[in-house]
Amino acid sequence: MIVEPAYRSKGFGVAVLRVIDAIAAERGIARLHLLTTTASGFFEQQGYAVNQRGSAPPLISQTEQFRGLCPGSACYLCKELHSNGLTAQSEDPLA
Length: 95
What we know:
Structural class: alpha+beta
Strand content: 15-25%
Distance between the termini: 21 Å
Order of helices and strands: HEHEHHE
């Protein structure tokens, strides 16, 4: 996910991420995984937890992104989804 610099810190990234969470939960996905080189703090604020890359399940660690497209220095984060796809911080992110 990329947010143009002029739109950062205005809630757009949070809003997009909440939609992704909701759709994933609606489809029965219990956990989201991601790699980032620049935005680990943002994702941690949204409920993702930093994990060791070696702890990723094979379906994740064997992807092309995990094996080579993202550098070894990229942070690996995961988030457990609630059944409704939202976290406890579910107020309107654009308000």
